Amino acid sequence: MPTVISDSSTLIHLAKIGRLNLLRKLFGRIVITPRVWIEVVEQGSSRAGATEVEVACADGWIEIIAPVDAMILPLLKRDLDEGEAEVIALAIECKADMVLLDEWEARRIAEVYNLVKTGIIGVLLRGKQEGYIGFLKSELDKLRGPGGFWIDEELYRRALTAAGEDGE
């Protein structure tokens, strides 16, 4: 089973559009850090994602693991918030197969460490390719609307083209 580590944004926004379980279908297990748990479940207790992530942890398909390397975390915190820094630090430590990140700076730093990364759009695209989603366009539209997730128009079009939905 691959080691996939997620930041808060992907969890929250997938929960907002009712697709958090897509992570379980695609990857089997997701790892989050203690800071991601705090951001999503404790600080976000009245928002989308809190209950869903708490239930997923209880069900055992989301697991909380803390990074232990005391050297890299302070370096990462110079440019990233605490959740993103923990996610990248843990991904480096455990040689994660993939990290789920949406914020530009976190993705840039993940590249510096040669981490394989994707974001919520990549997760939805893979869900479409593997047959878990009927139409990517409807999922992206939910993400942009009720999900409150900003998607650049060019990225939106490229994702639809990759899904074979550019002419629909």
In summary, what is this structure?
By secondary structure, the protein is mainly α.
Explain the overall architecture:
- This protein has helices at 8-16, 21-27, 34-42, 50-59, 72-77, 82-93, 104-112, 120-129, 136-144, 153-162; strands at residues 4-6, 30-32, 62-64, 98-100, 117-118.
- α7 (104-112) links the parallel β4 and β5.
- It starts with a strand and ends in a 6-residue tail after the last helix.
- With 168 residues, the chain is mainly alpha-helical.
- It is 54% helix and 8% strand.
- α3 (34-42) packs across α4 (50-59).
- The strands form 2 sheets. It has a 3-stranded parallel beta sheet with strand order 1-4-5. Strands 2-3 form a two-stranded parallel ribbon.
- It is globular.
- The protein is built from 10 helices and 5 strands; from the N terminus they run βααβααβααβαβααα.
Residues in helices, as a percent range: 40-55%
The span between the termini is 35 Å
Whole-number mean pLDDT: 92
As residue ranges, the low-confidence spans are none
Major beta sheet, specifics?
Answer: 3 strands, parallel
Per the principal axes of the C-alpha atoms, what is the gross shape? globular
Strand order of the biggest β-sheet: 1-4-5
Rg result: 15 Å
How large a portion of the residues is in β-strands, by DSSP E? 5-15%
Helix count equals: 10
* Number of distinct beta strands: 5
Which structural class do you get from the secondary structure elements?
mainly alpha
Order of H and E elements:
EHHEHHEHHEHEHHH
